[in-house]
């Protein structure tokens, strides 16, 4: 039988631009490949850090090798030390928690709301004398409820580090992701809205935090000290000029790409009205710019003959629609168990593991007809499943 969709899906990242090629060749031929080889306007890394920070409304930016390292640097710059605890949401990529472990601290895993973002009420239950920070994740491109989180964090004396890996260009009540906490971390990994294959950045408005970030990522140096002077412990965690050459030209394209994904997500929500048991996960109230790194859908097995999510995903893939299974709850990640402060049940995140499916960013770069194909494939699968319901 012919699948519902026989066309492919858009490539991500998009084809390289002439400007990216020209910048890459300029770096290659110039021989100044490392971030420390250039100074001021000569450094593409320094220029990109400034441009990106300005774009999100922050005063300072420090580029890093990846987003996990960005989180590690932010935590260390804000005073997290070995033996401390940091609250993270249960429904997130594992790096949100492993960055805490990298900083020597213990992740405290908190449940999420129906939007799958960190539940602000959990801070009152989980914050203790060793807790130093909280890391809200702007999941799928929608900012977390940072007002409620900051109020709770201030009450407990906690720093707020935004995990904005999926939220380039997002806004909450008109304020950009990157200005909603004490520091914010973005990723430029291959799947992200802006990408250099790998890379990351930390942005902050606090000059003292910026100076600590700069020293930590540059082997403990200070900007006004000598090359072999290292007044504090640090690491070489710098971005290369090649990565900045690829990233810089993407900044002017970002808003248009977000507009495109927003329009496709709206179409997808509309066509899914006809599909019982498959619906968009709500975004947090106050979201004024959702970047749609993902479209999150809730799958109700009862509407599909009782078949579990994995079977539904396989059937959709056979129809030419490769939906993604998404995260499992961090409470079910065995690698974290030895490091977490405690593993408490997180029923909302654990239920999401079994019921939430993803439409990834490249699919949202397609057209409205492709969104209709997603809904049509779901209807075809639903019809087949209802004819062959799961027997228990």
From TrEMBL:
List the protein's name.
DegT/DnrJ/EryC1/StrS family aminotransferase
Keywords linked to the UniProt accession: Aminotransferase, Transferase
| EC number per UniProt | 2.6.1.-
